[in-house]
Design brief:
Length: about 375
């Protein structure tokens, strides 16, 4: 009698599941999608219904297996769980298909999201939420029944029963298969070699798979490298890369120097060549002749052709005088009028006036300046 009752209950569960799948197939053939958002949501809803159907079949098969086991162990409660799960899934199937069918009706409302009406959007959202809930419940039922059929392995550690977790078993499998591939400690005696070095024995373990795979990858990379750089010549070898980097570095250096030439100050200024002095001569004629006259013999300002200087006659001294000036003595600052390079050119030209002996020179002023050796810089390096 008990066997017949179990078979009867199992048949009822099967019929209910089949009925649920049949109801899930009553979807509209071609729902009219008003826009891409509605089309996307409908596609997801249909896809979830397919997933629900597949999980329903899986639940049915697992339930059959559970019933067969319950016959031998007389666990009638297992059949009850299967039947209740089938009933619950059947009810949810009906709800999902009913709501989906309602979405085919044309709702005239103000556009809400992506052109969908307010009612249509939230109806589809509820449908998707219900389908996800159904899937979660089906997975939960399948998991619980499967665990009842296949209980976890029990290991004994320190006299206590410990169930090996799925995560731990998976890690041990991956470690043995792909990482270490080492022999367990209890089997090391079978792997010992005859080699003995001062009590240190050698095991005949295989190389770790990760090391071997890495070595194989280096071989593939080496072949690719050889073809790319030595056969196809589609890339630069280290020598070519070095030459390219040196060329790029030179371009960057030249660009930096071109910008850095404007950073000349009284500490870094140097005397330019004749070309730089020629540019400075034009600047002198334009700016300095009212005070120093055309040949530098001096008028309001001091004589620039003798060996006496009020504030020093070196290139740095003259540059500083031009840049900052001495307003209390009638020499204005020219740093807002000329660039650092132009003041350098002007100072260079003034340095060339020494000893020119122009007519009617002004009497010496200041202190005797003793000339020191100076470096002449190519003006092409500091001018555009």
């Amino acid at each position: 009698m008990l066997k017949n009752k179990n078979i009867y209950l199992l048949s009822m569960a099967s019929l209910w599941s089949v009925g649920a799948l049949a109801q899930s197939s009553l979807l509209p053939a071609k729902p009219e999608a008003t826009n891409y958002v509605e089309l996307l949501m409908m596609s997801i809803a249909i896809l979830l219904v397919v997933v629900i159907g597949v999980l329903g079949n899986v639940l049915l098969m697992v339930s059959k297996k559970a019933v067969e086991i319950s016959k031998s162990s007389k666990k009638i409660m297992m059949i009850f769980v299967v039947v209740m799960g089938s009933l619950f899934s059947k009810s949810l199937y009906g709800q999902a298909t009913t709501v989906i069918a309602d979405t085919t009706s044309k709702i005239n409302s103000t556009a809400f999201y992506g052109g969908l009406s307010y009612n249509t959007f939230w109806t589809m959202t509820v449908v998707l939420a219900l389908e996800l809930l159904i899937i979660a419940l089906l997975v939960l039922f399948i998991r619980n029944i499967f665990r009842a059929i296949h209980p976890k392995e029990i290991e004994v550690v320190n006299g206590k029963k410990v169930a090996a977790s799925w995560l731990l078993k998976t890690w041990h499998y991956l470690d043995k298969k792909f990482l270490t591939k080492a022999v367990p400690l209890e089997k090391e005696a079978d792997m010992l070699l005859d080699h003995d070095y001062d009590g240190i024995k050698e095991l005949d373990n295989a190389l770790p798979p990760w090391w071997k795979y890495g070595f194989y990858i280096t071989i593939v990379v080496a072949v690719f490298y050889l073809l790319k750089f030595e056969v196809w010549h589609t890339g630069m070898n280290p020598t070519e890369e070095y030459a390219a980097e040196m060329t790029a570095a030179k371009i960057q250096t030249d660009a930096y120097l071109a910008l850095a030439k404007e950073n000349v100050d009284e500490n870094s200024v140097t005397q330019l060549d004749a070309a730089g002095a020629a540019v400075g001569k034009a600047l002198f004629a334009k700016t300095c002749t009212p005070c120093h006259l055309a040949e530098g013999q001096g008028l309001v300002g001091p004589n620039l052709t003798d060996e006496y200087w009020i504030h020093g006659g070196g290139i740095k001294d003259i540059f500083k005088t031009i840049k900052y000036g001495y307003p209390d003595k009638g020499m204005q600052s020219w740093q807002t009028t000329y660039s650092p390079v132009q003041m350098q050119q002007l100072a260079t030209y003034i340095r060339t006036l020494k000893g020119t002996n122009p007519p009617n020179p002004k009497a010496p002023q200041g202190d005797l300046y003793k000339e020191v050796a100076v470096n002449i810089v190519d003006s092409a390096a500091t001018t555009k």
